[in-house]
Every structure is written in structure tokens, then in C-alpha cells.
Amino acid sequence: MEERKKDWPPYAPGTYVRESDISEKRITYTWWEPEVQYSWSLGPAMSKFLQGLKAGKILGIHCKRCKRVIVPPRMFCEYCYGPTDEWIELPDTGIIETFSISYLDPDARRIEEPILVGVVDLDGTPPHHGFMHYFGEMSKDEIKIGMKVKAVWKPENEREGSITDIKYFKPL
Amino acid sequence: MTFGEKQTDPTSPMHWRGDMQADYFYPSGVAGDKFFKHLMQKDSFLATKCNKCNKVLFPPRLYCEDCFEEIPEINWIEVPCTGTVRLFTVATLNAHNEKMQSPKVVALIDIDQTDGALLGIIKSNDITKDFLGRKVKAVLRPKEKREGTLKDILHFEEI
Known about the structure:
- The structure holds two protein chains of two kinds.
- Chain A is 10% helix and 38% strand.
- Chain A is mostly beta strands.
- Chain B has one domain (29-158): CATH 2.40.50.140.
- In chain B, the strands form two sheets. A five-stranded antiparallel sheet of chain B has the order 8-7-6-9-10, with no helix packed on it.
- In chain B, strand 6 and strand 7 form a beta hairpin.
- The N and C termini of chain B lie far apart (70 Å).
- The interface between A and B is large, with 39 and 34 residues.
- Strand 1 of chain A pairs antiparallel with strand 2 of chain B.
């Protein structure tokens, strides 16, 4: 910890704490890891979507008035505010709508091999309409917008009803 | 299931469970650091005295809370770790709202020779009595086990 400088202006100058002050225990501190748990109620539409993923199917929902398929599904269409009508099983192929080459992992640590993430526009849905996922079996130089991709699923016994039941999308 | 259909299976709506890592790091600050480093070596507390309003600040502060006067270095004083109970309550539930086997007496203790107070737990054989105004003494951890946090004060006990 640095000494406070006496010739500083009359406001409180502040005291700098460096990482080494903490690791070498030069300062006293309190460290606490609270238990913060959450339970998010998924609702009927998202529940059925995730149960579909567990069974190896991507389910969308159709809005008759707007003539479009919504995925991930919703109970209400966000364009016309009407209730959605009919469940539709979608193919697990699509195109890359947009992507990002990330050199940070989910905990914001720097990594050598980049993670490829982006939005997949599934076949059978209107253009510019999709969800986010990982891309794999391609390098950061090969990936491009408009590329045809196909889902790579986890083995059936490892699926748990989560979006990660699809491991990633690979080039078709 | 679309909106018109009825939901008949009560297990079909799912919940997504998770936990968030939310670590909490609180450095003691300049005055707090001095207080805890003193507490790690000695069996007494530190306090600071304001020159302008004569208030004895506990826990010690670098600036007076009342008149914002800066406290000079020589105004740090050593005070005994004893005090008087100003208020108390008997807690029967723990932080998770579960019933505890032995209730705890949580008290606000005015530290002697200061104008400050400290929250603490009073250990006593008889927890049904009135603790108001009683003299108590802090029981500290053994010196080699102190780590420079408020947990170094294990509990208070009656003198």
C-alpha cells in the first residue's frame, strides 16, 4: 500500500491497492462467496422447445397471420401480438447469419484458440431469423456469412434438455 | 402446445436452475487496515479522536463523520475491548431461515472510551435474561490464528 502524499491537494487523494498487496497479504480484506442461485421458469413454449432438443428435434412455432415460423418458439407472436398457432419440426440445417471470432472464453479470460459464435438462420424460417450458437469443425479463416451449416448433436444419453444438446454447427 | 391447447402434464413446464459466481472483495481501507493489523497483534482496539468536536470515532476513521475534520496521526488511541450492551435481540433463525438448535444473542455494543459501537454475538449460559446495559468483553481468536477480519472477534461474554 502506498503512503498518502502530503503535498497533494486538500481532497482525499486515495490509496492504490495492487494485486501483489492482496496476494502477499500486505493489506487486510474480507472475501466472501455468497450463494446466489436462480431458478428461471421457462414457460410452456420454451419448455417444449428444450424437450424437443432432448429428443433431437428443433421445434418452431407458426404464426398464421404473419405467415412466419418463430424459433425459439413463443406463445405469442411479437409482430402481431396474436397467439401462435401450430408446432413445426424444423431441419437442423441452416446458414450463418452473422458470426464473431472470440479470443475470450465465457469467463472473459484470454485464450489462444478462438471460439466461433454467431447466429444460425435455420432452413424453413424467414430470413434474418435465428438463434445464437457455437460453430465448429471450421477454422477462423474458413467461416463466412451465408455458409451452409448442420447441427452436431450430443449422444442421446448425454442430452439434458438444454441448448447445448447441440454441440455446435459444422459446415455442410 | 399452442395457446388453445390445455396443459395436462404438470411436469412439462421446465425450470432452468443455475448459480451465479458473485465473489465479494472488500479491502479494509487505510484506517481499517491499521485497525485490523493492530487487532492481529494485540488484545485491544484502536480508535481515532477528532480535535474539533472531541468525538472518539470507532471503528477508527481518517476523517470525522460529524465535522469532516482530518484526524492527525497522533490522535490514534488504544481502547480496551470491553463495552456496554446498547441493544440486543435473540435470533432463532439462521441466514437460510431455518431454525437454529441454539438461539443466538445479537447485540449492539458501545465500546468503552469511544462514541462508536460494534455488532456482535453474546455467548451466555442463560439467553433469556435482559442484557441491556450489561458490561461485556470481546473474546478474540488465539493470536496465531487471527487473519485481520472482523471474524477475529469470536463473540462477546459478560464480565
